[in-house]
Amino acid sequence: MATAYQLALEKVKNGINSAVVAAELVDSMTLEEKVHCLDGAVPFWVGIKDITTGGYHSRPFRAAKVERLGIPGFHFSDGPRGVVVGEATAFPVSMARGATFDPELEVRVGNAIGKELRTIGADLYGGICVNLLRHPAWGRAQETYGEDPHHVGEMGAALTRGAQRHVMATLKHFALNSMENARFGVDVTVDERTLHEVYLPHFKRIVDEGVACVMTAYNSVNGQWCSQNEELLADILRDEWGFTGFVISDWIFGVRDGVKSLQAGLDVEMPYRMIRNAPIVAALAEGLITEELVASAVTRTIATMLKFNVGELPVRDCSIVLCREHVMLSQEVAEKSVVLLKNESVSGTALLPLDLKPGSKIAMFGRLAAARNIGDGGSSDVMAPNVVTPLMGIGEHFSNCEVTYEPGANLEEQARLAKRSDVAIVVVGYTKEEEGEFIGDSEDTVDLVKQIPRQDDPILASEYEKYMRENHHYAPDELRIKSRNGTFSIGGDRESIRLLDDDVQLIRAVAKVQPRTIVVIVAGSAVVMSEWINEVSAVVMGWYSGINGGRALANILSGAVNPSGRLPFAIPHDESHLPFFDRNAKKITYDYWHGQWKLDRDGNEAMFPFGFGCSYTQFSISSPAIETNELIKFRCEVSNTGSRDGATVVQVYAGRKNSLIERPKLRLVAFKRVELRAGETKHVECTASLQSLATRDTKTHGWFVEQGSWNFEIAQFSGDPKALLLDQSIHKQIDL
Ligand code: BGC
Predict the structure, then answer these.
(1) Is the pLDDT assigned to residue 164 strictly greater than 80?
(2) What's the average model confidence in pLDDT over 480-496?
(3) 426 and 486 fall within a common domain
(4) How many domains does the chain have?
(5) What pLDDT is stored for residue 299 in this prediction?
(6) What is the 251 CA–ligand 1 centroid distance (Å)?
(7) Ligand 1 center–CA 250 separation, angstroms
(8) Ligand 1 geometric centre to CA of 77 (Å)
(9) Per-residue pLDDT band at 449 (split at 50, 70, 90)
């Protein structure tokens, strides 16, 4: 016999509104069942034991299951670079994917991750992480796409589009979670324009894309914890943006005041029964809150599950996991993400692509050359087997050359090796030890610890133990236990955005004796390079590049693939050009200015500007045109004027000279990646919304577009001296 939930699914399939159907179903629930859906319903102690002994990579987190009515609950799994349960395909981290400037490719990544999620029974993906890169030291920089709201919004919307073909997706962390070590305690102060024009546009873009779920952030904003922040959750997310999905908390210590969180519109505390259950039960008993308040939260959760067909989503065969198509997609992304920053001539020829005769000597250096180093070891860690390191990739590709790597050698010996070789490749940067998610012994959570139930509810405990037994996905122990266990509290915000001293010394020692030195940087965001960059001929940003990253690198260095990645952030000459950052801050103000916008405002030239990246060919842009209607349409011709096939990213920036309002000199409003054969010219069109020019009106809390003349630049990076300039008068009053 069909369950009540199955009947509800039928109704939704027959076109009845999911919120109406869910409300009926919730009406048939007892108060106890409704309250049961307000958190993960896993008792804390059994849950915490599981997560700290590898359970995080064994099964998805379940919540909102009601057996009596056949409500299956939802099943959550992270994270941005692939599925974290069992073995899975590791994609390059989001920041690398941001460097592709290729939303269609990102749709394919989301599609692949969505399929792999369905093999482990997950139906809620936790990977749409779009907090803005305010400062490169942010430990989780690698999990987002960059510093620009338009670009981050388009990339995150694309991942959502792809993943939501198969599962529901979670947009996180709402909001202003752009620092790591202090995340459990910091209060971020922000004014209305900065909030809406800088830190929220990309969240709104993804809500408009139809994302199912939003996860709140740990930090507080303007004095109120995000998990109970009425302005963020009720006024902005639901009332202003019309979000109809459900809201979950960040994990463990993500909820502060159970009752307030419910009142503000947080629907589920994840992943355990930890903070909110007892106070909510008490408040109900005392009549301080109503059953309707509980019902409306549960209705939002179940309505979204019904809308996404949760419970009847196809279960995928495990053979899809790590299948050739996904691994090759990961490699394609890695290839398209590499940013060639510098490529000078040595003896009259550009160092890259490498032109090596058989038998040539390639010397590899750096602790990361042979490391399995695909990114952070926190919630985004993927248990990918057989990761191809740079050394493996180079060795395989240049099998007719002699590839050496002597990590144990001292600096003098390394220099001797470099001198004897035809080319030196130095792979430096970071690992999860230097940057990543962080759970410190935080004094910020001391009060919360007191709220954790002392003992587990035995019925819930045995239900969870059953769930654990029935849902155990294999991942190699040596990978599983390294992540989300006792040693998890490493990484965090970077202490410095320089390379480590040892790395700098190595680069110098090698470059001093070997003019053909290529530096490959593995990092999640910007690295200040001023102290050594003039000593080397070539630099590439290689990122945490996924399961086949070493092969992608070899293809780029050899020229089998022409680099086309573009920086999703600006790299300054000096750390002092960045916004204020204190990784232990208790309070911080986020003003309007960071990244390229701040450099432009302060008159500091970037070492490498936002959107910058070189190629082995050249491109030119001509015949610009603009047309303004409901949307602003840009047209131009793009030509590959060199002798190799390649790709560039057409970028449109908007500015307004003599504006009475303080705004960025240039702000990205549209972009398009274009592939061109050698000698080919293509007609390119891209569009921007008028909203992308809009200013938040702090009196009416609405939007307006400044009337009059706007200047647009069609360029290949921010501040491109070859940009084509277009002036356009905008006089239309628009209803935004
Ligand atoms: C992270 C989230 C993640 C969650 C579940 C938290 O610590 O901040 O991004 O989704 O854990 O793994």
Answers:
(1) yes
(2) 72
(3) yes
(4) 2
(5) 98
(6) 6
(7) 6
(8) 9
(9) confident
- Longest Cα separation, the chain: 83
Domain edge (last residue) among 523, 538, 566: 566
Minimum-distance ligand 1 atom for the alpha carbon of 170: 10
Together in a domain, 130 and 193: yes
Instruction: Assess whether 243 and 356 both reside in one domain.
Output: yes
Question: Does 403 map to a domain?
Answer: yes
- The answer to the question of residue 587 being in a domain is no
Residues lining ligand 1, Cβ inside 6 A:
78, 126, 172, 250-251, 379
Which atom of ligand 1 is nearest to 439's Cα? 7
CATH assignment of the domain containing 641: 2.60.40.10
- Atom number, ligand 1, closest to the C-alpha of residue 177: 8
The pLDDT score that the predictor gives to residue 518 is: 98
| Residue 731 Rama label (left phi>0; alpha psi -120 to 50; beta) | alpha
> In which band, very low, low, confident or very high, does the pLDDT at 489 lie, cut at 50, 70 and 90?
low
Amino acid sitting at position 584: N
Confidence (pLDDT) at 49: 92
Structure tokens, 130: 């779009």
Specify the length of the chain in residues. 736
Q: Rounded to the nearest whole angstrom, what is the distance from the C-alpha of residue 34 to the centroid of ligand 1?
A: 25
pTM: 0.98
Taking the C-alpha atoms of 555, 559, 562 and 563 in order, what is their torsion angle to the nearest 10 degrees?
A: 70
Distance 271 CA to ligand 1 centre (A): 10
Ligand 1 center from residue 386 Cα (angstroms): 25
User: Could you read off the pLDDT of 649-672 as tens digits, one per residue?
Assistant: 999 999 998 888 999 999 999 999
Whichever domain contains 269, its CATH number is 3.20.20.300
Is the pLDDT at 731 greater than 80? The verdict is: no
- Of 95-99, 481-485, 584-588, 697-701, the poorest mean pLDDT is in 481-485
Q: Among 531, 566, 601, where does a domain finish?
A: 566
Across the chain, what does the average pLDDT equal? 96
530 in a structural domain? yes
Atom of ligand 1 nearest to the CA of 129: 9
pLDDT at 431: 95
Among 50, 78, 130, the mutation site with the greatest number of ligand 1 atoms within 8 A of its Cβ is 78
Q: Ligand 1 centre and the CA of 56: distance in Å? A: 11
Q: Looking at the structure, tell me whether residues 171 and 268 fall in a common domain.
A: yes
Chain position carrying tokens 């080397």: 536
User: Rounded distance, CA 712 to CA 668, Å?
Assistant: 10
Instruction: Print the domain residue range for 704.
Output: 617-735
Cα distances from 677 to residues 190, 553, 639, in angstroms, run: 47, 21, 9
- Three-state SS for 91-144 is CCCHHHHHHHCCHHHHHHHHHHHHHHHHHCCCCEEEEEECCCCCCCCCCCHHHC
Residue 483: both structure tokens together: 């992540």
Q: Residue 402: its pLDDT value, please? A: 98
Q: Same domain for 683 and 556?
A: no
Which ligand 1 atom sits nearest the alpha carbon of residue 76? 5
